[in-house]
Design brief:
alpha+beta, putative fmn-dependent nitroreductase like fold, about 20% strand, 4-stranded antiparallel sheet, binds flavin mononucleotide
Length: about 190
């Protein structure tokens, strides 16, 4: 069921590094997301696939995981992501990067849902320096790096908890190390009767 898949699709910041992700697996995720809705059907998003240790480690050194839990220094050593998808906007398709921001979200969610269905997990990452990532990958300036998604086999335990009105929205780890993600309740997000 779609709801089960969405509930299972949690941001992951700890991976089985020995479980490599293949180019074919990443291609399957992109093949699914390329069918998603797209503003004016322009489809300016293109993808740089990373599935070798050297490049994956390089990206790991350039992104920040778990800003709400800085004391943990996630990912823990040895649990780094073995793969990444670098989502880029091709300005030669259309230069209006801001106009297509919704496309990025739609495609990113579709990719992580696909990963979850494949028994893998992902984390969308917006916390990185665009220019440095672009330079490290030798990307042509027509490509603007819009979002990075880590991919791999999760070793984390994650649960959703109700976010009561007035409580903190910040995710946290409980006394057993379980990653808890507060989500607003249904009745709190419907505006009208
Ligand atoms: C646009 C966007 C950017 C994000 N950037 C980061 C990031 O830089 N680092 C990180 O660890 N998580 C990042 N996340 C993941 C969120 O922290 C995560 O979605 C949130 O804590 C809720 O957890 P959930 O995805 O399991 O529902 C990002 C999520 C989105 C949608």
């Amino acid at each position: 069921m779609l709801k089960d898949l969405v509930l299972a699709n949690r941001s992951c910041r700890g991976y089985d590094y020995s479980r490599k992700v293949t180019r074919d697996e990443l291609l399957e995720m992109i093949d699914i997301t390329r069918h998603a809705a797209a503003g004016v059907n322009m489809q300016p998003l293109k993808y740089y696939l990373i599935y070798d240790d050297e490049k994956a480690d390089l990206i790991t050194s350039m992104v920040k995981f778990g800003a709400n839990l800085p004391e943990l220094g996630l990912p823990f050593k040895g649990t780094e992501p073995p793969a990444y998808i670098i989502m880029c906007h091709d300005k030669e398709v259309n230069p209006a990067v801001d106009f297509f921001r919704c496309d990025i979200g739609i495609c990113a969610q579709t990719i992580t849902l696909a990963a979850t269905e494949m028994g893998l997990a992902g984390c969308m990452i917006g916390n990185y320096n665009k220019d440095k990532v672009s330079e490290a990958l030798g990307l042509d300036e027509r490509f603007s790096v819009e979002l990075i998604i880590s991919i791999g086999k999760s070793i984390e335990e994650v649960k959703i908890v109700d976010l009561e009105e007035g409580q903190s929205h910040k995710y946290y780890r409980d006394e057993n190390g379980i990653h808890c993600v507060p989500k607003r309740k249904l009745e709190d997000i419907i505006i009208n009767d």
